[in-house]
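During the second half of the funding period, the structural biology subgroup turned its attention to how the target accommodates small molecules. The most pressing case was S-adenosylmethionine, which had performed well in the primary screen but for which no bound structure existed. We therefore specified the complex as follows and requested a full 3D prediction, including the ligand pose.
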Amino acid sequence: MNAKALQEQPQLHIPVMASEVLTYLNLQPNGAYLDGTIGAGGHATQILNQLSANGKLIGIDRDAEALEICSKHFSASAQPVLLYHSSYDQFPGILKKLGISELNGMVLDLGISTMQLDSDSRGFGFKTNGKLDMRFNEETGETAAELISRLSERELADFIYQYGEERHSRKIARTIKSLKQLTTVADLKEAVRRSTPPHQRNKSLARVFQAIRIAVNSELDKLAIFLDHFNDYLCIGGRVVIMSYHSLEDRMVKHCFRSLKQSGKLKVLTKKPIVPSEFEQFQNKRARSAKLRAAERIA
Ligand SMILES: C[S@@+](CC[C@H](N)C(=O)[O-])C[C@H]1O[C@@H](n2cnc3c(N)ncnc32)[C@H](O)[C@@H]1O
């Protein structure tokens, strides 16, 4: 394969802090585990490698394409991976169907995969072309373009400010709403270009795209539901590991762990969030904003 063809190959997602995830999960070979955001199956592969034939791995993703990659990837594996096209906050219903009452561990690797970010048909990345969709689950809900057209200028500015921490939020929202049409990645990029100074434009673009993605997928709502009940489905000694890429998500995890610790139900294993090593950050720049928190159920 020549260099150009190699560059054009879709990049598979590199799992972030893979060895740290395994360390904090403290895997039991016969245990039952949940990967709530299985993506390309990077963390799941590592978990599976440590499970015996009696172990179980349940994988959930909202993205049907991710599940297709996983079902091919795991088709030859000795233990079946039970894959579900769903949202991770819905995991209790899946456990009920499987007749599993408790898990030995759960992993969430929040946010977006490399395949999603780089895809020209999904609209997640500002370096891509195509329709402004941004739904993890393409079968349901409003696309980014539909959401933006429904929101008022003020609501849009608030999302861009809260979920993107972008200080030009008002001006960007005003420009977006003044456009005759907004249906593509290029339209949104043009609105940000017109409203921000050139020297930090890529940062503004990243923040605006992130904010709209979070809003389209109600990402904070899903996390809040999960945090509300995950502990009830862990066995005593069971572990939860959550990686987030946004300060709002990390704060939600931190506060939840702290309150379960105060009620004597959880031992927090990470006093401060764990971040990728300098080497990993150098090798995988998408890992740079990752923060990992882990905890163990004690009562
Ligand atoms: C960072 S990637 C996970 C990568 C994975 N850990 C790996 O090693 O390949 C995040 C994944 O979470 C999925 N996702 C986002 N929100 C979700 C939700 N509420 N429920 C299930 N999956 C979700 C995305 O579709 C994406 O595939």
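Two results from this model are relevant to the next phase. Strands lie at 32-35, 56-61, 81-85, 103-109, 234-244, 266-268, 291-297. The radius of gyration is 20 Å.
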